[in-house]
């Protein structure tokens, strides 16, 4: 049940289906390039679009505008100490800026970075700095349907083996991402993180924690991990978990567009030597040390948002809505990632569009088709989100997912049901979904601004079928 009420609203616009075909074409059939005014439900991401609380908005008025030594910085630093127990804090403009700083500081060309699973920007920064990504996620993490409650867990035997094979000196750091974005917002257990970090530390390897999706992960640790199930009061238990994580890892970083429901980012650590190693890159790339490219108003909102991330009623919002979404789709036998994770509902496009060759980008095509069928904007998380191999051949993603993000406290349950209904209709008509091909393909992070076109007039055919079935309805 929602333990909040809505006091400010933004009207939405639902274009007729024929218009939806047109705007998709104009945006190069890439949902990142859509204008938000053309979108009905924006399920692209939770990044920077979570609903903020009245306390966050109120705190923004308290911001101290100064280039250096702002009170706002010290308030945020204090909040981080309270939540993670870490004394050193480097502010950045968002999560990928932390990845830039960490990768530049700690990766020597030729070294590997071990991780449960990559995130797009993380991998790009590691590779630009001459590093190599080695993923050591448990095999269930890459299976779309599974019973494993923590599909983001690392395979500890593989971790030991990789350290032995590569040699600790050739490993820049171990990175754990919890929750794990690209495999469907799947959580990592505290038990697994403790073990993995111990293995790395025993080998003298630096440990880095990506806490961008920690809110959802906290929920899953609390409700799915036996050790924490009975620990009360619940909010103190959440804080105990974050404090343990802050102590466990050498470095923690986060996108505050996700964690803390504001806009910005940060790197925190207990180690003065690591702080000193990174400090120079903050004024170079971000801004002075007491704002790091963030607006002081956002920093005030973040300080409040971080504390609110320890409130179970706030933390549970996305996971329980995702679960409701997944349940609706499972009832209609649609292929979705299970168990339900955080972040959003992840539709398995590999199976949904199994009539399409992989070269025609199943998840990308499904994202376009869903927009035509509903005005819902999702995000391709499959082969389009990968980069080509050095020889120019396509690198097929291990999973072809359409992510329908459920930003915190933004959508109503009836909107979730609407998205599910249209997906069910689309599934019944999936044979009408055709493929896409690139017309403009950037070399780096092509999914952000690449353009594609349909390989036939399938979007028009899909819209015609929509009209036939839905009549005048939008
Ligand atoms: C796990 C993870 N790490 C890093 C990032 C990058 O953060 P940002 O978008 O703020 O640059 C994201 C963003 O989605 C993420 O989900």
List keywords for this structure.
474 residues, alpha/beta, Aspartate Aminotransferase, domain 1, Aspartate Aminotransferase, domain 2, 2 domains, 7-stranded mixed sheet, 3-stranded antiparallel sheet, 20 helices, binds pyridoxal-5'-phosphate
Secondary structure topology:
Blueprint: H1 17-26, E1 41-42, H2 54-60, H3 71-84, E2 88-92, H4 95-106, E3 112-115, H5 120-128, E4 132-135, H6 156-166, E5 171-177, H7 190-202, E6 207-210, H8 214-224, H9 226-229, H10 234-248, E7 251-255, E8 265-269, H11 272-278, H12 281-285, H13 296-308, H14 312-315, H15 317-331, E9 344-348, H16 349-352, H17 362-374, E10 376-377, E11 379-381, E12 401-405, H18 413-428, E13 436-440, H19 446-449, E14 451-454, H20 458-470
Parallel strand pairs: 1-10, 3-4, 3-5, 5-6, 6-7
Antiparallel strand pairs: 2-8, 7-8, 9-12, 11-12, 13-14
Bound molecules: pyridoxal-5'-phosphate (PLP).
Please, could you describe this protein's structure?
- By secondary structure, the protein is α/β, with parallel strands linked by helices.
- The chain has 2 domains: about 15-45 and about 315-470, Aspartate Aminotransferase, domain 1; about 55-310, Type I PLP-dependent aspartate aminotransferase-like (Major domain) (Aspartate Aminotransferase, domain 2).
- The protein is built from 20 helices and 14 strands.
- Helix 17 (about 360-375) packs parallel to helix 20.
- The mean pLDDT is about 95.
- The structure holds pyridoxal-5'-phosphate (PLP).
- Pyridoxal-5'-phosphate (PLP) binds near residues 122, 177 and 213.
- Pyridoxal-5'-phosphate binds near residues 210 and 257.
